[in-house]
């Protein structure tokens, strides 16, 4: 039979274990709720950083207008293969933390690229296997913080690549043989 002190120690240990378990479950439940909310706004999948903020999201369809308010610290958006790119880019212009956009194999058009300079922190763009042409080069050059752009599989000519290089000499242009 346990004495009074042993019972108290066991009880305190049990309370401590429950508190620890609750501490681990609560962030998980919050992330799960956030994930469900973002899926209702069009996200196919989301990833969280160590602080529990959404760091990246992948879409197969247009991004719903309320997404930018629900995801203030988002850094990466993957729209690979998505449709409704123009509407999605309009939503993304409200995200100051966004650093990378993947538009590969999507229905992005030259006129949609006009929206990208409005994304203040944008540094990396992947636009492989799209129908983009030389018409989007000036808009790409207007992206203030641009560091890397992937253009393989586009219809941008060697002259267009050279023009982009002249307008943005510090930008690394990847995936195009004549861009090296």
Order of helices and strands: HEEHEHEEHEHE
Q: Give the low-confidence spans.
A: 18-25
Cα shape: elongated
The CATH architecture is Alpha-Beta Horseshoe
Which fold does the CATH topology refer to?
Leucine-rich repeat, LRR (right-handed beta-alpha superhelix)
Radius of gyration, in Å, reads: 23 Å
CATH class: Alpha Beta
Question: How are the strands of the largest sheet arranged?
Answer: 1-2-3-4-5-6-7
Determine the mean pLDDT.
Answer: 83
Can you put this structure into words, describing what you see?
The structure is a single chain. The protein is α/β, with parallel strands linked by helices and 180 residues long. It has a single domain, classed as Ribonuclease Inhibitor (Leucine-rich repeat, LRR (right-handed beta-alpha superhelix)), CATH 3.80.10.10. The chain has helices at residues 4-40, 67-70, 85-92, 137-141, 158-167; strands spanning 43-48, 54-59, 76-78, 100-102, 124-126, 148-150, 172-174. The protein has a seven-stranded mixed beta sheet with strand order 1-2-3-4-5-6-7. β6 (148-150), α5 (158-167) and β7 (172-174) form a beta-alpha-beta unit. The longest helix is centred in the first third of the chain and has 37 residues, at 4-40. The termini are far apart. Residues 18-25 have low confidence and may be disordered.
């Amino acid at each position: 039979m346990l004495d009074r002190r042993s019972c108290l120690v066991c009880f305190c240990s049990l309370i401590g274990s429950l508190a620890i378990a609750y501490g681990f479950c609560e962030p998980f439940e919050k992330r799960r709720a956030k994930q469900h909310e973002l899926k209702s706004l069009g996200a196919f999948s989301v990833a969280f950083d160590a602080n529990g903020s959404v760091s990246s999201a992948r879409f197969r369809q247009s991004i719903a207008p309320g997404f930018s308010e629900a995801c203030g610290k988002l850094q990466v958006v993957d729209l690979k293969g998505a449709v409704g790119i123009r509407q999605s880019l309009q939503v993304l212009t409200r995200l100051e933390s966004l650093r990378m956009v993947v538009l590969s194999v999507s229905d992005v058009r030259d006129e949609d690229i006009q929206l990208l300079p409005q994304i203040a922190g944008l540094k990396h763009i992947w636009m492989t296997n799209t129908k983009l042409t030389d018409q989007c080069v000036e808009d790409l050059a207007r992206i203030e913080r641009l560091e890397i752009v992937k253009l393989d599989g586009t219809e941008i000519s060697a002259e267009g690549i050279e023009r982009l290089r002249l307008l943005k000499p510090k930008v690394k242009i990847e995936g195009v043989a004549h861009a090296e």
